[in-house]
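Consider this:
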Amino acid sequence: MDWSRYKPPTYDELIHADGRPRPAARRLIEYITGLSRKDLAERQLAADLAAREMGVTFTVYSEGRNVDRTLPFDVIPRVIPRTEWARTEAGLRQRVQALNLFIDDLYGEQKILRDKVVPRAILKESVNFRAQCVGIRPPLGIWAHICGSDLVRDGDGTLYVLEDNLRIPSGVSYLLENRLVAKRVFPELFETTAILPVDDYPAQLYDTLAALSPRPGEQPVIALLTPGIYNSAYFEHCYLAQSMGVELVEGGDLHVGDDDVCYMRTVYGPRRVDVIYRRVDDLYIDPECFIKDSVLGVPGLMRAWRAGKVALANAPGAGVADDKVVYAYVPKMIRYYLDQEPILPNVPTYLCDDARQRKYVLDHLAELVVKPANESGGYGMLVGPRSTKRQREQFAKLIAARPRNYIAQPTLALSTAPVVTDTGPQPRHLDLRPFVLSRSDIYVTTGGLTRVAMKKGSLVVNSSQGGGAKDTWIVDLEESA
């Protein structure tokens, strides 16, 4: 394989600007260099077939229909040296700790608002603040037990936190499946390179959930609550429930008794449930408290949770910090609650509810990325440099109508990594989503899910918009043979 025509437009995760491989990727690049284009194409085909055979799918909502698709997988992994990952992991631990303290404070004393570190107006207009949760303190004071923070690297090599997903972060099943596929395709490299394992996540997730049980000392009954087969992440729900050996349930499988205990319907009669890993949004989990005609949730579930008879992960209301406006204040939270300097920086962010910052945003729409505060999946964004005049005019009206709902950030020169194409390896932009589990201690996945834009020049990596995935290798250079 000839790399002489590989010309990344920005920082590349595997290749220096002068064409030399980065130290952690050297063995991988040497190995691929020894393959012909036909050999690499055959490895890619083998990976595609393996992913299909393993049933790795996601669901896309399109024109009123649900379409199951396999997630595009690029066979060339992303590589990160262990020394860099150690610092990244420390930054994620610090960040999630501060976020949980923030959520607990908001539903409790609200000291951070009283001390004017975070403006009270941000809470007043939050669509994810749940008044029903005020005064509740979940086990260990932890609200976001599972967090997925998105990281991006700029052209100068700086790794930024782009956003924090605290409601129902998804994608970890692809992280685990990608590793299985990579091992099938590159078994030789796993024998000679110290690639850190990722396969302990299901056990770590189980331990995290079990630690929440209201009946300590007894074997907890844990269930994963899914919206059902039409949900885009149904594959992941099945995968995680099976990997942990817990029940996969829908709302109709559960009921809450007059004793405020949550029960699961079984052929042997009602069985008490201690912990629910819910993959159903707040507003649908309990028609007694939220959307009255929801059939996805369980009537009385909030009552059972408030009574301490069942634990919910993530706790209802945790999404109040899953807000791109709140995101802008995370560095201040870290200083306020932990008295530490943030290890990982935020992407510079302009808040449109601030008159001065809003004027700057409106004057520079053609240069900025504008995002709604609570959308996900890359929807509702304006990528200024690739927008039309009409699109910018539409966004100016949206911002003027609801300034609290929009933030703007500079367009980063997102890093790239090579993907297999018909003309050989070509650079494509990517991001990284590590997953963090919070209990009495904090666990961070080794690396994370690398999402990659499969289209040339695209900055959108979301699977719902055509993005794919890569395996992520954290390589210990000292231990490699």
